[in-house]
Design brief:
Layout lengths: L3 E8 L4 E8 L4 H16 L2 E2 L7 E3 L4 E3 L15 E4 L6 E2 L7
Parallel strand pairs: 1-6
Antiparallel strand pairs: 1-2, 3-7, 4-5, 4-6
């Protein structure tokens, strides 16, 4: 059995915050992808250069390793995390891509 964690995701460079639920057994790399997919659909954006993105735990004061799960990092419901997305990583879709 696994727990769904409720997290507050901050994207400081675009000034947005989102409440999301994540499986505690999920790898950080997959969490990044799922959250960015959700945000991009909601905000009509696209992400470029995903390999350079990182997740930072505000409560822990450290970056989370992509190769570990949220459970391995001991992430708890209610924690705030930040994803290092900037406008250099985000683009608006062109008319051909819409």
């Amino acid at each position: 059995m696994y727990e769904m964690l409720k997290l507050r995701v901050q994207i400081p460079d675009i000034g947005k915050e989102y409440d999301v639920q994540c499986n505690e057994k999920a790898y950080v790399e997959d969490v990044i992808q799922d959250i960015l997919d959700l945000i991009c659909r909601k905000e009509s954006l696209q992400v470029e250069k995903e390999e350079k993105l990182a997740v930072y735990s505000v409560q822990k004061g450290s970056f989370l390793k992509k190769s570990r799960t949220l459970e391995e990092h001991r992430v708890q419901s209610g924690e705030n995390i930040m994803i290092s997305v900037s406008y250099t990583h985000l683009t608006l879709p062109t008319k051909l891509e819409v």
